[in-house]
Specification:
CATH topology: Rossmann fold
CATH superfamily: NAD(P)-binding Rossmann-like Domain
Number of strands: 10
Strand order of the largest sheet: 3-2-1-4-5-6-10-8
Largest sheet: 8 strands, mixed
Helix content: 25-40%
Distance between the termini: 29 Å
Shape: globular
CATH class: Alpha Beta
Structural class: alpha/beta
Number of helices: 5
Order of helices and strands: EHEEEHEHHEEEEHE
Radius of gyration: 16 Å
Strand content: 15-25%
CATH architecture: 3-Layer(aba) Sandwich
Low-confidence stretches: none
Number of domains: 1
Length: 209
Amino acid sequence: MKLAVFGASGPTGKLVVQQALEQGHKVTAFVRSPEKFNLSNPDLTVIKADALTPSTFENHLEGHDVLLSALGIGQSFKDTTLYSESGNNIIEAMRKSGVNKFICLTSGGVEDDDPSFEFIYKLVFKRLLRKPYNNMKKLESYLQSVNDIDWIIVRPSRLVNTPLTGVYRVSARYAPKGGSKISRADLSQFILKQLDSNEWVRKTPTLTY
């Protein structure tokens, strides 16, 4: 397949690109600073682009099979419009280019009433992350109104930089009970499994160990 990846220079996006290339896919990586992107492969094309500025990428999407977004603000507690604004821009560009499948990331903590999270998380971390979570919710709400694109919103639990295991749990909404983390390598594997699967289309798979 031919994949377009936003957030390709981030810790998760880079693993998505690496695994996709290892699987034989052709990848177009959209990054703000190509000079800092150190991956090289005959099947990799790197484009300087900003998801908040459609004119930098909308003419490069035609011919791709799937668009993946690993955009995020990390563990920042700051207010942001990155999730909702980039999602809106990307969907509009996909419509113009005829790309029909979109896979993006929010977070396993985005649900207000998720019973799987411990009290201390709800008391402290969810309050600190309220602003970015609010923008993730805005993105999710927007996508849930989109009927002409096959979208998947992947919600990882706390991301860690441990090796690929291939063993993790997936739930349709709330985080699987008892789990609190997932490696970026396993998250990337799950994302790429969705390329030719309809199991989670227009759903919110939530991942944890």
